[in-house]
Amino acid sequence: MSLRETVDWARAEQDLDRVGFALTPPLLSPGECAELIGMYGADGAFRSTVVMARHTFGEGEYRYFRDPLPALVRGLRTRLYPPLARIANRWAGRLGEEAFPGELEGLLEACAAAGQHRPAPLLLRYGPGGYNRLHQDVYGDLTFPLQVAVMLSAPEVDFTGGESVFVEQRPRAQSRPMVARPGLGQGVIFPVRHRPVRSARGFTRVAMRHGVSEVLSGDRHVLGVIFHNAR
Ligand SMILES: O=C(O)CCC(=O)C(=O)O
Ligand SMILES: [Fe+2]
């Protein structure tokens, strides 16, 4: 199954521009989702583990993959990047920012030059009572502006609650809440920090933070695909 066939990138870009996030069709099969969930316990696959409550990040746990990334994660990160880079570069043009390389390899080289060597893709796991406080995944000076969270658990079957929450903050306006409910294998594409929105004088940056509402029952696993590397 090719991503180019499954993701309607024009539609995704429209959704990002109009609403601020975009849901994709399933990017992983149920078997691939199960395979990734099964990897959570494989200590050797990860470079670090974060117990969220210790940092007041929420309730739950996540683990950053170490290099070399599992083939499934590396494949997804590599294939999703070029179409996202085209969107990111249209945004960069509107905001007067520098363009991003067309391929992931180029982005990772630029990250290395900025001292960002460590892979940022991660697996997250929330049990009952789990949640994730609103945040932004910035890991250094070099930030690729879009990221993807892939749902590895089946909503209403494996867990209840646990919606993907986004809050948009515009200058001089009250914050706008949004909720996404990706199904098994579906991805949510969203801005890491901000996106361009048309204003009286061209475009302005609108900030976005993301998090997860409380998991009411069961276990919720997500693959976080972040394209820039971390310091
Ligand atoms: O668990 C989620 O849906 C959000 C995960 C997250 O914060 C991320 O992918 O950066
Ligand atoms: Fe995040």
UniProtKB/TrEMBL annotation:
Q: Its domain of life?
A: Bacteria
Q: Report the Pfam families cross-referenced here.
A: Oxygenase-NA
Q: Which residues form a coiled coil?
A: none
| Boundaries of every Fe2OG dioxygenase domain copy | 117-230
Q: Give the keywords, sorted.
A: Iron, Metal-binding, Oxidoreductase
Q: Which family does it belong to?
A: Belongs to the iron/ascorbate-dependent oxidoreductase family.
Q: What is the name listed in the Swiss-Prot or TrEMBL entry for this protein?
A: 2OG-Fe(II) oxygenase
Native organism is: Actinomadura fulvescens
